[in-house]
Amino acid sequence: MVVQTNLSHRIIVLFFLLPLLSALADSASDSDLINELVSLRSSSPDSGVIHLYDDDVSKFLTSVPTPRPYSLIIFFDSVDLHSNSQLRLQKLRREFGLVSSTFISNNNGSNNGTKLFFCEIESTHSEASFHLFDVETLPHISFVSPTTENLTESDQMDGGDFAGLAESMTEFVERLTKLTVGPIQRPPLLTKTQIGIIVALIIISAPVLVKKILKGETLLHDRRIWLTGAVLVYFFSVSGTMFNIIREMPLYVKDYEDESKFVFFMEGSEMQLGVEGYTVGFLYTVVGLLLAFVTHMLVRVKNLNEQRMTMLLSLVISFWAVRQVVYLDNWKTEYEIYPYWPSSWRR
Amino acid sequence: MGGKSEPAKSESMATTTTSPDLINSSFFSFKSLKLKTKQQELLLRISILGLVYILAFIARLFSVLRYESMIHEFDPYFNYRTTLFLTEKGFYEFWNWFDSESWYPLGRIIGGTLYPGLMVTAALIYWALRFLRFFVHIREVCVLTAPFFASNTTLVAYFFGKEIWDTGAGLVAAVLIAICPGYISRSVAGSYDNEAVAIFALLLTFYLFVKAVNTGSLAWALASAFGYFYMVSAWGGYVFIINLVPLYVLVLLITGRYSMRLYIAYNCMYILGMLLAMQIRFVGFQHVQSGEHMGAMGVFLLMQVFYFLDWVKYQLNDTKLFQTFLRITVTSAIMVGGIALGLGTASGYISPWTGRFYSLLDPTYAKDHIPIIASVSEHQPTAWSSFMFDYHILLFLFPAGLYFCFKRLSDATIFIVMYGLTSLYFAGVMVRLILVATPAVCLISAIAVSATVKNLTSLLRTKQKVSQTGSTKGAGSSKASSKVTLDQSQPFQKNGAIALLVGVFYLLSRYAIHCTWVTSEAYSSPSIVLAARGAHGNRILFDDYREAYYWLRQNTPTDAKIMSWWDYGYQITAMGNRTVIVDNNTWNNTHIATVGRAMSSNEDEAYEIMRSLDVNYVLVVFGGVTGYSSDDINKFLWMVRIGGGVYPVIKEPEYLVNGEFRVDKGASPKMLNCLMYKLCYYRFGELTTEYGKPPGYDRARGVEIGNKDIKLEHLEEAYTTSNWIVRIYRVKPPTNRL
């Protein structure tokens, strides 16, 4: 009887111990994984975002039984698509890094700091992972919770969460993890020492400046500076710089069909590329300044031959520039703009 | 046209060159002859101005000839409606008008939310004409107000050019601005909008102010204050004046050009102008309360500091003492000003900058924060081809003109340079502001043309004179060498100058041709009647808008409420005489967002919203049959964006497929079931629009639509115009409860 009860006791004890042991073993491997992630995080060059490769994905996600002791939030990146300005991949990646560094600094040392890790996967090295997550379009940010088994079902950040950048990404993270990221700490444009130096410089130079202004011998009193500034304002206005800034147009794009070719000029009157605007703005400015030069400077040149040659040269340049502008405008707008010479001369 | 300006100037030259010779002859004949040439010159100048005046008017009549005498576009319909009200009911009724026909159920206080300058001007012209026994319809007055004021602008441009350079530049400026496409775009007959009178008022204010600065006369300063008052009463763009003028004064102060003239001009203009502007209810106390106007006040205070310092300097003889005094005063003045501004802003007394103003300074602001501003097509940034289209040769002349201005710097040329550069920057930010830059560009280019032509003609003239004196009197000892070289170079230089003159006039004639062509082709369409070219090159007119509005007027109950996107609000109230939910005065973003939400929800949800707004009819604009591209489907994403800005349940990505807006089979399910899609494409699947294409082929977007079998539950089709451009649906009353 005694033996029997002992045995049954042992069995019962064993029965209770087994899961406990296995849990112990698990927790050991769990803490290993967390430690590894933490070390990866601290060794990562920027803002604590861990760069994952295909084998890391299997090590930290697919081969770990659920529930995992941590959740991962993964940014899918592709170097090839960085040049596509509409996707704003690099900007989003920076904001993502900002969320990560904020999270780390706010949760450093606390228990929560090891519950969430920020990672990125880059397409050229880790195509398999892209398939695993079923990523077809970028930008794509996935949240893998401890209970997610099938990676294709991981929570995906949608367009609305990208819109407000780091702040709305934070909301997304806090909504899913119930962890606090805290207010985003953007790096200031100037560091404190820089601001201090600038303020000091201003204070030191203030009396000198005031004195100079009162005496009237600053750059402000040099009309050549003002003229240069005025021409620059003109140049940037007519070349559509504002258009480029507001629409975030690139200077040039690559040809869709042939990657090695560059497209500098775009057809359609409601679009323009950076280089295109500057080229035309430059042509405008050259012609205008040549006119001023011919009527004001050239007449003072003593040598008659020089005068004639310069005159002819500037006429030729102006003619060529105007011709280029009209040609480009006709091509771009598909309007036949009335050119400056008879229509039979048209090319 | 450019050529016409020349004789006047050469005549004036002739007066100066021939008169010394004539002094020797009898005094009597000299006097009569001199009077005669002077009279001739005056006559020429006046007749040129008269011709330019008429030219500016008739160049803007293309739209009346092509279509008919009608009001264009969207906003002018509201202005027309209010003018009609003003002439019928009188000024006090107009001033206190509460309009219950728009923004249902909120209504709108018209008197307090508009710039009355345009309406009052048109009403005054109308009453004056009636007094003179010309019985014209108020619509004709409204249609022709813009060309009339454009003509007046040419006169102001003449005087302005005369003030900053000389008579020749004035005449050239008048000619250039009369036909400049950048100005014509907003002032053709029928575009009865605030800008029509505002550009005149803007240029007039600037001219009077520059005149006041040049003369230091109180009378001119007073006149410029009244000019400013007229501008404030006419257009919100007055903010440009109240910022540019102080900036100009500040630049003069910095560059050491402070003078008593400047002090008188600015103080009188600012104080009086501010007091007068406060009489406009829509502007109210903004001059002392809003951040946009604080710069002017700061410069006003700075002027007082300058004046005070001047006085102290006069009193104190010791320069060293004065230097210390100066340092203390300037620092304390700046500190006091800064503290006052900080306190005002912190206490909320001074309001921060408005979105529109901010979006000018930081161009990317509007795109990120204010979709309702970014959605309007005339608020888009300008590409280089638009500048080319609107300015033509003026673009090339502008840098040359700048150079000339800098060569002969004066208070007046500094002003025109600053005006030109700031407005050109703003023109780059928003397409519609090309309009504000146009007068400056015309003036500066006119300086370039005038100065070049003057140099060339004087070259011709002095050569003649030298050769004459050389042949008759023989070479003097001291000037002999120079004259000889001049004589040697004469044939070439003369021919060169003639060739260049011909070139200049040739370019100007090309400019005239370009302007006329642009006006007739691009800027004269009323956009309420659409024109297209048929297969055989014939003109086809689509008059669907007016057809729909008249249908509303005739066939719906007078208290019917119409829901449409805000673009059509003014037209529906003005032509259909029915109440609308939202209109082009976008003062209540939430209300617009509610309509946007209704349009982008499915029919059941939209029905709830429409019931809550008491909507009886829904009006949509659809271009799938005619290929008219600015219809509601193409505007739909903005409805989603604006709706989503207030109601987060509307999410833009749900209407897109991979970031792409589609209406065909690949469109997102949310898109295929939203109210706008259903109303536009209802029964469209049965219609063949183009030979060789399947039924339901959308010609505006060039695709076959994705949902051809549309069933409506809570709405029914009430009317579709002949070309399907406007479709009106009736909202059914709720079914009986069971």
Describe this structure in words.
The complex is a heterodimer of chains A (347) and B (738). By secondary structure, chain A is α/β, with parallel strands linked by helices. Chain A is 56% helix and 8% strand. Chain A has 2 domains: 2-177, Glutaredoxin (3-Layer(aba) Sandwich), CATH 3.40.30; 222-346. In chain A, strands 1-3-2-4-5 form a 5-stranded mixed β-sheet, sandwiched between helices. In chain A, strands 6-7 form a two-stranded antiparallel ribbon. In chain A, helix 3 links the parallel strand 2 and strand 3 (116-122). In chain A, helix 3 (89-107) packs across helix 6 and helix 8 (223-238) packs across helix 10 (274-296). The longest helix of chain A has 42 residues, at 2-43. The termini of chain A are far apart. The model of chain A has no long low-confidence stretch (mean pLDDT 74). Chain B is mainly α and 738 residues long. In chain B, a hairpin with an 8-residue loop joins strand 1 and strand 2 (108-109). Chains A and B meet through helix 7, helix 8, helix 9, helix 10 and helix 11 of A and helix 16, helix 20, helix 21, helix 22 and helix 23 of B. Chain B: It is a multi-pass membrane protein. Chain B: Its cofactor is Mn(2+); Mg(2+).
Which structural traits does this protein have?
heterodimer; A: 347 residues; alpha/beta; Glutaredoxin; 2 domains; 5-stranded mixed beta sheet; two-stranded antiparallel sheet; 11 helices; B: 738 residues; mainly alpha; 11 strands; globular; disordered N terminus
CATH fold group of the largest domain in chain A: Glutaredoxin
What is the H/E string of chain A?
HEHEHEHEEHHHHHEEHH
Please give the number of β-strands of chain A: 7
Task: Name the structural class of chain A.
Answer: alpha/beta
| Rg from alpha-carbon coordinates of chain A | 33 Å
CATH class of the largest domain in chain A: Alpha Beta
Total helices of chain A: the number is 11
Largest sheet data of chain A: 5 strands, mixed
Please report which band the strand proportion of chain A falls in: under 5%, 5-15%, 15-25%, 25-35%, 35-45% or over 45%.
5-15%
| Overall pLDDT score of chain B | 84
The Cα radius of gyration of chain B reads: 31 Å
Using the alpha-carbon principal axes, give the shape of chain A.
elongated
- The CATH architecture of the largest domain in chain A can be named as 3-Layer(aba) Sandwich
Largest interface here, residues on each chain?
A-B, 61 and 59 residues
Instruction: Give the proportion of residues in helices of chain B.
Output: 55-70%
Overall structural class of chain B, as computed from helix and strand content, comes to mainly alpha
Low-confidence stretches of chain A: none
Strand order of the largest sheet of chain B: 6-5-7-11-10
Tally of distinct domains of chain A: 2
Shape of chain B: globular
